[in-house]
Amino acid sequence: MRELQGHIARSQRIDRLFRWAGLGSMASAVVILIFLLGTLGVEGGRRLSWQFLTSYPSRMPAEAGILPACVGTFLVMLVTALASIPLGVAAAVYLEEYAPRNRVTALIEINIANLAGVPSIVYGLMALGLFVHQLQLGHSILTAGLTLALLCLPVVIIATREAVRTVPTAIREAAYALGATKWQTIRDHVLPYATGGILTGVIIALSRAIGETAPLITIGALSFIAFLPSSPVTADPPFVSLDWLFDPFTVLPMQIFNWVSRPQAAFHLNAAAAGLILMSVTLAMNGLAFYIRYRARRRIHW
């Protein structure tokens, strides 16, 4: 009896030790994040202004802004989302609901899991050979968007599959019992139920892609640009233009890299201000993902 009590006491001490170790690790990460945000806020907050957001880059630090980088980031992420979300969700639904369980499917699943951990520079090298040289898309917004879409695709597929797996089997069985086909069951019941998890995975994947620099450097993104891409809206029919897809571009991480590489301290303040904006956008996207998951769980429970 005493031996059993001693074993239980040791297990409880180990449990408390791991609990405090986990709490300490989480607290350390939070402190580091707060320190980084505070440093960016102190150094870059002095440069944040409407003029900084709406001006073009300049050789004069006080006159430089991030307008082309913001527009380029938005357009690149738009192409990334349009390319990765439909394809990733469709691939996940097929693998989870339709694909037979055999060696080929298992090999595909292993490769998708491995692709999620591949360094981003590898995607840049692949995009350089495929999109730039083979397909002749050039160093354009379309090339950048497709490159980051490849980066996001494994994450979207894995997140969607996990969300679909959480749908109770009883929902599928009830739909089949009422005469629904497999596609009707997936479209009207499985996907709406899994929407929260899918959107969470999508937003986290996009928040990772928005801060990537290595693949964009590889495909030839500009670090200094003093003009905006072509307007997607025109005055002549059909009133829509896709010329902006093939325009050169820059993004916020590239602009930050350009400023940090300069020796003047004033450019470093500009980089801190741009970094603060990029960090705020990334945290906002992750916060939105957690909020969507919270609302989805509440809706399911109610």
UniProtKB/TrEMBL annotation:
Signal peptide residues on this chain, from the entry's feature table: none
NCBIfam families: 3a0107s02c
Transmembrane segments: 20-42, 66-95, 107-131, 137-159, 190-210, 272-292
A single GO cellular-component term on record: plasma membrane
InterPro entries from the UniProt entry: MetI-like, MetI-like_sf, Phosphate_PstA
Lineage: superkingdom: Bacteria
Keywords of this entry: Cell membrane, Membrane, Transmembrane, Transmembrane helix, Transport
Domain ABC transmembrane type-1: 70-289
Topology in the lipid bilayer: Multi-pass membrane protein
Database matches in CDD domains: TM_PBP2 (cd06261)
Protein name (record): Phosphate transport system permease protein PstA
Similarity comment text for this entry: Belongs to the binding-protein-dependent transport system permease family. CysTW subfamily.
GO molecular function: phosphate transmembrane transporter activity
PANTHER family, per database record: PHOSPHATE TRANSPORT SYSTEM PERMEASE PROTEIN PSTA (PTHR43470:SF5), PHOSPHATE TRANSPORT SYSTEM PERMEASE PROTEIN PSTA-RELATED (PTHR43470)
Compartments, record wording: Cell membrane
Pfam families hit by this protein: BPD_transp_1
